[in-house]
Amino acid sequence: MLSKSNSDIKISVITVCYNSAATIADALQSVASQTWPHEEHIVIDGASTDGTLAIVNRYRAGLAKVVSEPDAGIYDAMNKGLRLAAGDLIGFLNADDVFADDNVVADIARLAVFEDADMLYGDLEYVSSQPARHALRHWRSGRFHPAQLALGWMPPHPTFYFRRSLLEKNGGFNVRYKIAADYDFMLRYLRASGQKTAYLPRVLVKMTAGGASNRSIAAIFKKSYEDYSILRKNGVGGLVTLMCKNVRKLPQLIPYFSRYLDKEQK
Which residues face 14 on adjacent strands? Predict the structure, then answer.
C-alpha cells in the first residue's frame, strides 16, 4: 500500500546506455525537465567509448547515481539500476527515448496514489530517429485483465512502473534472455496475484523505432524464440499466444500506413 500523499511519492527513473552519445542528451534533458519534485534519475553506462559519459557528466548535478563499468548486456545493466533505486515506484527510460511531455512523471505519481496501484502503465508512440522524430506507430495499451495475457497482450515496457517493494517477491530481469527479458519481467509481475494494476490512457514515452529486437531477420527470429520460451516457462500459452502477440501490432500501424498512402497518391 502506498501510504504517502501525492506530494511525497518518489519515482526512480533508470536509464541504461552504451555508446549513446548521439541520443543521451535528449533522454537526460527529458527527465530533468519533469515537473515532479520527487524523482531520482539513475544512469547505468556500460563503459562507453564514444563520449557518452562526458555528456552524462554535464547533467551530473541532477542525477542521483551514475555507474560506468562493463556489463553483461542491457538487462544486466537494468538489474544494476534496480539494485540502486530508492524510489517508491521504479521505471525505465531508454537512452534514445524521451518522455512525451514534462508532466509524465507527475501523472504517474498521482495515478499511483489515487488508484493505490502496485503497477501502472500507459501508451507509447514509436517515432523516427532524431532530429525529425516523426510518429510511426501508436501503441494504445488499453485496460488490463489477466486473461488478456494468454491473448498476447502486454503493455509497452518503457511505460511500465512498479512498486520497489515488489522486487523482493518478483525479482529482476532474467539475463538468460538477451532480447525479451523485459517481456518475461512484465509477465511475471502482471501474473502475480493480489496486486493492483492501473492504466494511464495517454502517451507517456516517445520511443525511437529500430531496437535490438527488430534490427534484422535473425533478431526477429531470436526474439520470437525467446518470447515462446517465456510464455511456456510462465504457463501463459504457446504458439497461439505468440501469434496473437504479433498480430496485435497490426492495428497500431494502420493509421500511419494510410497516411503514407494518402501522401503517395497526392
Answer: 42, 92
DSSP β-bridge partners for residue 68: 45
Rounded mean pLDDT of the chain?
A: 90
Contacts of 118 (CB under 8 A, 6+ apart): 162, 163, 166, 195, 196, 197
Structure confidence at residue 193 as a pLDDT band (50, 70, 90): confident
Q: What is the pLDDT of residues 88-136, one digit of tens each?
A: 999 999 999 999 999 999 999 999 999 999 999 999 999 987 666 788 8
How confident is the model over 140-166, as a mean pLDDT? 95
**Radius of gyration (Cα) for the chain, nearest Å?**
18
Q: Alpha-carbon dihedral of residues 146, 147, 151, 157, nearest 10 degrees? A: -10
d(CA 70, CA 169): 28
